Amino acid sequence: MKKLIIPALAAVLIFTACGKDTPKPQTVSITLDSNPTTGFSWQVAQSEELFSVETNYVEDEHEEDLVGVGGKETITLTPLKAGKTEVTLTYARPWEGGEQADQIIYVFNIDKNLQVETVDSYSMGVNETLPTPEPVIN
Question: Among 51, 57, 130, 138, fewest CB within 10 Å belongs to which?
C-alpha cells in the first residue's frame, strides 16, 4: 500500500510545482506632469479593454500655503487578457466641452502569459514638443 501512495504523492507534487513557472502579469507605469488645480487631468481610453487602470497623483513639494502647485500623475495598467490595444492618454478638462491640451498614444501587445510589449508611442496636441515618456514595464 505504501508503495502506491508515495509515487502518487510525488506525481501530485511534480504537477503542482510545474504551475509555479507561470510568470506573474507585468504592469505598465507611466508618470506624467499634471496640475489638477487648473481643471486638467489625464484621461485614459483603450481601443480594446485589455488593461485595468489605476491612477495616483502626488503633488510636488512646495512652500506652505502655496496654491496651484502641480505634481506627477502615475497611470498603472495591469493586463487582464492577451491582445493588442491602443491606449490614449488625454490631458483635458473632463467636463462636457472641456478644453483638451495634449494626447499621448501607446500601442501595446499582451501575450498569453500577460507579458507586455510596447509596440509604438507618439504624442500630439497643443504642446508639439511634449516628450513621450517611456512606459516602465515591471
Answer: 138
pLDDT in tens, 28-57: 999 999 999 888 899 999 999 999 999 999
Which residue type occupies 103? Q
d(CA 103, CA 29): 16
Q: Which residues contact 78 (CB under 8 A, 6 or more apart)?
A: 25, 27, 28, 51, 52, 54
CA distances from 15 to 6, 8, 9, 23, 134 (A): 14, 11, 10, 16, 39
pLDDT tens per residue, range 73-83: 999 999 999 99
| pLDDT score recorded for residue 20 | 59
Q: What is the CATH number of the domain that holds 61?
A: 2.60.40.2020
Alpha-carbon Rg for the chain, nearest whole angstrom, is: 22
